[in-house]
Write a structure and sequence with these properties.
Blueprint: E1 2-7, H1 14-26, E2 31-36, E3 54-58, H2 67-80, E4 84-87, H3 93-99, E5 107-112, H4 118-129, E6 137-141, H5 144-153, E7 159-161, H6 175-185, E8 192-197, H7 206-218, E9 223-228, H8 236-245, E10 250-254, H9 259-264, E11 268-271, H10 280-287, E12 292-294, H11 300-303, E13 310-312, H12 318-329, H13 333-350, H14 353-367
Parallel strand pairs: 1-2, 1-4, 2-3, 4-5, 5-6, 6-7, 8-9, 8-11, 9-10, 11-12, 12-13
Length: about 375
């Protein structure tokens, strides 16, 4: 099967990382191309993970909406004649709805990577008015709760559910250095290490985490917070806000290409987001058995069961996160071991990239 995966940018977000890992997996048995509309920059990590079996195409185009971009996308499909075009960007969807009129033999998929935000609501209301041309267009939701939400709000559009998947995390050659670095942050061997990973977007809510850990420090709790993320792609205003709020138990470590090492040296992953799709960092934690402490954002509630895989906060406020962190810290060692075992089992059963890719291929054959 000939497949083209298309993203607007290959920056350091979860959707971009997923697109690369899915492309790598699909390339094992299919003719695979991955197209980025924007040019690739040196700070982008996902492009460095693309295997030789995937042909990378860059359109080097920076405008979101342009007739020139439409023509470039038209030429891309006409030249390659793929069986499947798989889109991972809401910015590009309108183009492909129109393109589906010209390429009747090509099946068009969009993966919806988030819950219904105001931007997504506006987009899908518009697409609902174009449903007379959605013959070959199918929307894939990345978690059960997100699927149910979209079906409820937009019943006239076509949605299916396929869980995201990832490659299992592996330690790198930097592990020993990372372990030594984190040991230097700890007060003693009993210090609990919490890691949070993201690009400092407002919805990641890292400022709230910094405030929470300030209170934990004042309360004398033996904990530290590692904030991983940054670089050219991060929200610099929010980065600076967190820097102004942090105290002696919070460390902003910047962008890292060896996340597996940091998570493996942590006691739990922290998710403070106010909205999410199915965050890949939660899947990464599951893949190595790391417990998760999270807000009830988006697809997280489909992955984390209270007390079984970690702790889900009651809400999104600082008091809710503090309550969840303190609840995790009171868990007995026996339950922590059970959580780690449960996470490894859950990942193996539901969230490997091989299982995910297989479902996309089955979907494509079913639609054809």
């Amino acid at each position: 099967m000939k497949i083209i995966e298309i993203v607007y940018s290959l920056g350091n977000g979860g959707a971009e990382k997923f697109t690369v890992e899915l492309s790598n997996e699909l390339a094992k048995n299919n003719e695979m191309k991955l197209c980025s509309v924007k040019a690739i920059a040196g700070w982008m990590i996902p492009p460095k993970k693309i295997t030789a079996a995937v042909e990378l195409i860059q359109l080097n185009f920076n405008k979101k909406y342009s007739i020139v971009l439409f023509c470039k996308l038209f030429s891309l499909i006409k030249k390659n004649r793929p069986d499947v075009v798989h889109v991972h960007s809401s910015i590009l969807i309108f183009y492909f709805y129109i393109l589906s009129l010209f390429f009747k033999k090509t099946h068009f998929l969009q993966t919806v990577h988030n819950t219904i935000t105001p931007g997504y609501a506006k987009l899908f209301r518009f697409l609902s008015m174009l449903r007379f041309i959605d013959r070959g267009f199918l929307n894939v939701c990345i978690s059960k709760s997100i699927f149910e939400q979209y079906v409820s709000v937009f019943p006239k559009l076509r949605f299916v559910h396929i869980d995201n998947g990832i490659e299992k995390l592996s330690l790198t050659e930097k592990y020993e250095v990372t372990e030594k670095e984190i040991s230097g942050f700890k007060k003693d061997k009993s210090t609990k290490v919490f890691s949070a990973i993201g690009n400092y977007s407002p919805f990641k809510n890292f400022a709230m985490l910094a405030e929470a850990f300030r209170e934990l420090e004042v309360a004398g709790r033996n904990v530290i917070l590692l904030l991983i993320g940054g670089g050219e792609s991060c929200n610099q205003i929010n980065f600076a806000e967190v820097a102004g709020l942090k105290t002696g138990n919070t460390y902003q470590l910047g962008l890292k290409d060896n996340v597996a090492d940091y998570l493996s040296c942590s006691d739990a992953l922290l998710m403070s987001s106010t909205k999410e799709g199915m965050p890949l960092v939660v899947l990464e934690a599951l893949s190595i058995g790391l417990p998760i402490v999270s807000t009830p954002a988006g697809g997280v509630v489909d992955m984390v069961e209270q007390g079984v895989n970690g702790i889900i906060a009651k809400g999104f406020e600082k008091k809710d996160m503090l309550e969840a962190i303190n609840a995790f810290m009171t868990l007995p060692d026996r339950q922590i071991r059970e959580i780690k075992e449960n996470n490894l089992k859950k990942f193996a059963e539901r969230f490997s990239i091989a299982q995910c890719a297989k479902k996309y291929i089955e979907l494509a054959y079913t639609e054809h």
